[in-house]
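Researcher: Please predict.
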Amino acid sequence: MKTNDQKQIKNIVLKYLKGTHSAFELELLHQWIMDDRNKQGLDQLIDELLEDRHLSNAETMENEEGRIWKRIYTKLKPPADTDRPSFNQKVTNKRIPRIFQLGRIAATMALLVCIGITYWLFVKNETKNEALKGTLASWNEKKTNAGEKVTISLPDGSKVKLNSLSGLRYSGNFNLEERKIFLVGEAFFEVEKNDRKPFIVVTGNIETSVLGTSFNVKSFSDSVASIAVTSGHVLIKDRGDNHTIALKKDEMANIHANNPIWHKSDFDYEKVIGWKDGILVFENEGFEGILKRLESWYGVEFEVLGQANPDILINTTYHNDPLSRILHGLSFTYNFNFEINEKQVVIRFKS
């Protein structure tokens, strides 16, 4: 298993145990566990977690298997006609012996295995679980680094521009039965119209649905998102169907899934969506905030020697300007010298 995949799955396990995982991450974990190609990776993951002192307190983790089964069973709520084992029934799976031979296994490890088995038994035929429509390997994924923006063409003809430090994932079955994309970060969508297959963007607990339109989605949290529409209409809802809001052209909404009141408003195009056209807007921005934006925009790291005047705030707009030109202008305002060495930038304030 690739190192990055190992880290991703381990992080999802840890987030699951803390209760901070997203529904999509849990579905990925289910799939990964049940994929036979990941058997060796699962063994390595078990070894790593068992060595973690925070997860292996045997005194508090004995005799947890029954309670884990019950907890998962209750959580998943399988349909009445589904064949399912009782809590004490032994389930046949070729991975169980390898794991339970370890003896006093941490409850976290039992949980890791049980959720995979239970999910497979209870919901493998449930069409609403979109992450089960292919194995983890069948998902198409794209991530961007700092300073990187990419345009992606989807199988239905739609286009996505992905901002830096963002990622999206969609099934290999995209456009066959449905059009659904999972996004973390920010992206601008130009969606081909299809009245029979709504285009759905999932950001944590929030879904944005359209038939054919263009809109921007920004979400670095499972429960918070900002959606701005440049053409057509979109419908936004939380995944529990508790709250919804409709937006039309030139409207945006800042959404919090746990807030019962969702508001929409007008928006400044350059400030909200200008990033896709190389437009960088600073509005009442202090020095530290400016550097953070520049690091993400240009993929550089700053070393600052000295202190900026915190009372100086910047209001300006740049259009596809090179970093050197921006720093040159800022240097007069904040009184510093700078030196760019590839991806490293040193700023020295004048005394």
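Model: Residues 318 and 325 are 10 Å apart (CA to CA).
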